[in-house]
């Protein structure tokens, strides 16, 4: 039975035209015949054998196979390259071989971060690298499981490393990064325009008070500072340890080595001289000299005119004193510079002991080498010797005053001296109590007592000795 392709009517076999619509239907019969005679596109109609594949087809198949192979190889290579475990193994190997620069290269380092590769690596070792390494592996596994990764902390609870994951190659792969977490370091600056150098990083204070010094990795750093002051150029240096404290912000103390000196005089318009050079300012105009170096001692005195219009120099004060009072004789007896020099040459016991005290002060320079290496044992030796020298001359002065003063005056001095001793010992004890180490307590105690004793020596000579 043949069906008409035009109207669908069922016709008798061998019918050439549709009995319903009259249209030819032989095209359907031809199509069926061709379909029955054809076995497949690769066989000939005569013998049914497979046709040979064209060269183009062969190259196409080979090309596809090569591309698939390259994709597989590239996938394996990239996956291996991005394997975070390989990166952790590289960290471990670098640290064991003490290749500290290579250790740091395995991390993502934030911009403007200040660090010392060796010092930071040693800090990591100190805080237990094996535990930190195991934590890194654990957090990597968390990311691969679709979970969040927690920061890795040091033994003080300060964040040290964060583990991050990001897409690469349009999201086809995931890359794990180990980013170092810095510590923000601050200090309290006593003045504006102090130049601070930490390793090779320079900071200039822009105000008095809290000052940001930068972003640092934990470690040990060398620091120094310079300041061009009105009265003296100040500088100091030392070593700074930055370590975790449970927070990624740290406030450090820098030894500014600064002190102040309050000035007063019985002639307030006397001109102040520093190391023999005029400041062109009067005692009242200055009032207080700040900042001065606590260790670099300068000599300060004042100059006024006597009734003859001649320059007269006051007593000299060194900048390590806490208070400077410049005294001038009564104008009728006020000596000139020449008379002062003659008095020093021929003078009284008071002048002799002033010279002795100045000599002791200058002679302390022979102890400076004990401070060079910042060894507390050596520093303690220097402070103890300094105190002993001032204490010996104090006893000598006190013995001489017993001969010069009346019994009544000596009794009054004795009472004052007892109060002074109590004040000295109390101040030394309070200052020393700020330190936990016994050696630092001793250093501080002798330093304060030496300063008190020195000032007392000058007071006794100037106010009591004849």
TrEMBL record:
Keywords: Membrane, Transmembrane, Transmembrane helix
Keyword field contains Transmembrane helix: yes
Stretches assigned to the Zinc-ribbon domain: 3-25
The UniProt record lists the keyword tRNA processing: no
The TcaA 4th domain, residue ranges: 259-323
Stored Pfam families: LprI (PF07007), TcaA_2nd (PF22813), TcaA_3rd_4th (PF22820), Zn_Ribbon_1 (PF13240)
Stretches assigned to the Lysozyme inhibitor LprI-like N-terminal domain: 377-460
Name used for this protein in its record: Lysozyme inhibitor LprI family protein
